[in-house]
Specification:
By secondary structure, the chain is α/β, with parallel strands linked by helices. The protein folds into 2 domains: 285 residues, QueA-like; 98 residues, no CATH class. It has 11 helices and 17 strands. It has a 9-stranded mixed beta sheet with strand order 2-1-17-16-14-3-12-13-15, with helices on one face. A 6-stranded antiparallel beta sheet has the order 5-6-7-10-9-8. It starts with a helix and ends with a strand.
Length: 406
């Protein structure tokens, strides 16, 4: 673990001119470029040809999270605008429940222009469908970078999900340096998004279209879904010199029992779409290892912590045994899905347990996502990114894609 913790983030820097950052997506999702990396060789293709390079009978895992319109702007009587960015639910702390609330809920939030909101309520008059609603926000606790904000509204026929749909704004990444546009409501969601809860899109999935899925189906490729609600921490740069001083964000994950069964049967060829899917799938191994040590572990003790993969405190077991442990646990508790949290840090020095291929975009310099890619390609991230820069690939959320195979 010492070697991984002492990685210097400056070694994962590269020049990324602003003009190489894709500010908007291409008109057709699947016409983006595809960089293929396998056996140390790099090739250039188009994304709609990806079925030619996915092994037959492979299992592809997608993150089906849906981005919420998490950013709200309250205008005070003075004309000052205060921005509240909902990060994760606090009370209730369950995503499904919080969106169903009809009178009040509390969120962990970021507050912009905070000095304009020293105390008291912020209020906004809303039109939600045919209903008039007064939405109030009260800051009940300041936790440094984040705040606890309680939202209340005066119409019990309106849910918080409807409040966000009517008043919220889709939080596109800050590095796009532009306002959210109407088109982003469609283009910044994957075609298979369904479980609301993310504040950022799992952008590797933005390239997939019904036509690509049909081509994969003809190759007898199996598609499965997991859920990881992407937090704002995905944009958080590593500011510390050594990664040991960077705290990974905690994210909610949910994986159906049937998906875990499929992973168990397809362990030789699991391909994850996006780094969020990678973190979810690899976290399963450590949940299984926790259960190996304590088969009766309480749900709260199944969380995967940041440095758990490197500490050597858990039993060393096969991926098959880890997944079987989870299946046994779910059966014993009569559960149809595993729900827990992960804070996993995947960086050089990490040994991949389940994932054999990754579909992913090109990530920011000095980011934890770039560390993950480096770990997967055995440190050869630089030739891949040099190639992409030299061959006019578009970078970041709305940019081009890569297929990395081990």
């Amino acid at each position: 673990m010492k070697q991984t913790k002492e990685i210097k983030i400056e070694e994962y820097n590269y020049p990324l001119p602003d003009e190489r950052i894709a500010k908007f997506p291409l008109p057709q999702r699947d016409t983006s470029k595809l960089l293929l990396y396998r056996h140390g060789e790099i090739e250039e293709h188009t994304f709609n040809q990806i079925d030619n390079y996915i092994p037959e009978q492979a299992l592809i895992v997608f993150n089906n999270t849906k981005v919420i319109q998490a950013r709200m702007h309250f205008t005070k009587d003075t004309g000052a605008v205060v921005e509240i960015f909902c990060l994760e639910p606090y009370a209730p702390n369950d995503y499904a429940l919080v969106f169903q609330q009809t009178e009040r809920c509390t969120w962990v939030c970021l507050v912009g222009n905070s000095k304009r909101w020293k105390s008291g309520l912020l209020q906004q008059q809303l039109q939600v469908g045919d209903k008039q609603v007064t939405l109030s926000a009260e800051r009940i606790q300041n936790n440094g970078e984040s705040n606890l904000v309680e939202f209340t509204w005066d119409n019990a026929d309106v849910t918080f999900a409807e409040i966000l749909d009517a008043f919220g704004e889709l939080p596109i990444p800050p590095y796009l340096k532009r306002d959210t546009e109407e088109s982003d409501l469609e283009t910044y969601q994957t075609v298979y998004s369904k479980v609301i809860g993310s504040v950022a899109a799992p952008t590797a999935g933005l390239h997939f279209t019904p036509e690509v899925f049909e081509a994969l189906k003809k190759k007898h490729v199996t598609c499965e879904e997991v859920t990881l609600h992407v937090g704002a921490g995905t944009f958080k740069p590593v500011k510390s010199e050594l990664i040991q001083d960077h705290e990974m964000h905690t994210e909610f994950i949910s994986v159906n029992k049937a998906t875990i069964e499929n992973l168990l049967h397809k362990l030789d060829c699991v391909i994850a779409v996006g780094t969020t899917s990678v973190r979810t799938i690899e976290s399963l191994y450590f949940v299984g290892a926790i259960l190996e040590a304590n088969p009766n572990a309480q749900p709260a003790h199944l969380k995967v912590t940041q440095w758990m993969p490197y500490e050597g405190k858990l039993p060393t077991i096969t991926a098959q045994k880890a997944l079987q442990n989870i299946l046994d646990y779910l059966s014993a508790h009569k559960l149809d899905k595993l729900m827990t949290n992960t804070q996993i840090m995947i960086a050089p020095g990490y040994s991949f347990k389940i994932v054999r291929g990754i579909v992913t975009n090109f990530h920011q310099p000095q980011s934890t996502l770039l560390l993950l890619i480096s770990a997967f390609v055995d440190g050869n991230w630089k030739p891949i990114y040099d190639y992409a820069l030299a061959h006019d690939f578009r970078f970041l959320s709305y940019g081009d894609s890569s297929l990395l195979l081990r």
